[in-house]
Amino acid sequence: MVKRQRRKTMETTITKDLNRYRPNAGIVLINDQGLTWLGKRKGEAGPYVWQWPQGGMDQGEDLRTAGLRELYEETGIREDKVSYLGETQDWITYDFPPEVLAKRPDRPWIGQKQKWLALRFLGDDRDFDLKAVPPQEFEAFAWEGVETALERIIPWKRPVYEAVAEAFKAYAA
Questions:
Q1: Three-class SS of residue 77?
Q2: Which of 2, 81, 132, 168 gets the most CB atoms within 10 Å of its CB?
Q3: 27-59: pLDDT as tens digits
């Protein structure tokens, strides 16, 4: 069965074949001050090299399992340092720009479909270990308000982040 996503625009309805998008789990880690955790991608420079943790879902993984695994792999944070707040219900997609597709011509995906978890962080900054699982994804991190975080996201991913921020705004208040 082909899964499809419909998105209404002013003139037409766009239908996407979700099988062409890589399944991905994202995590918005929120501290007790309502700030979100952003990681700076290792070895990258520029203003748009920050993001919330996210990564591919393995075959058969549900959102929570994949999200907690990705959180540990990218930040070193274990399940006992977070509490569940909520999650997005539907897939949110983005298309890879041509320069990203050109780097990976062997991949069958045209973008990613994501579901996101909102998690409250229960620890402190000393709990982070960005080298916990090689290869290291992030080289630094910062706690940012949602609006500031959105300004640091690569522009072609920003609509996804805006949708996620809207879905989780009550948790970051």
A1: coil
A2: 168
A3: 999 999 999 999 999 999 999 999 999 999 999
Of the candidates 82, 16, 13, 14, the one whose C-alpha atom is nearest the C-alpha of residue 53 is 82
CATH superfamily of 23-168: Nucleoside Triphosphate Pyrophosphohydrolase (3.90.79.10)
Tokens of 26: 């994202």
Phi, psi of 104 (to 5 degrees): -135, 65
Residues 6+ apart with CB under 8 A from 40: 49, 50, 138, 139, 140, 141, 142
Pairing of strands 92-95, 111-121: antiparallel
Q: Dig out the tokens for 133 from the structure.
A: 């699982």
Look up the pTM and report it.
0.88
Cα torsion angle, 67, 72, 75, 81, sign: positive
Paired residues of 144 in beta bridges: 36
Nearest by Cα to 168 from 10, 29, 1: 29
Q: Decide if 40 contacts 55 (C-beta within 8 A).
A: no
Q: What is the pLDDT of residues 104-162, one digit of tens each?
A: 888 888 999 999 999 999 999 999 999 999 999 999 999 999 989 999 999 999 999 99
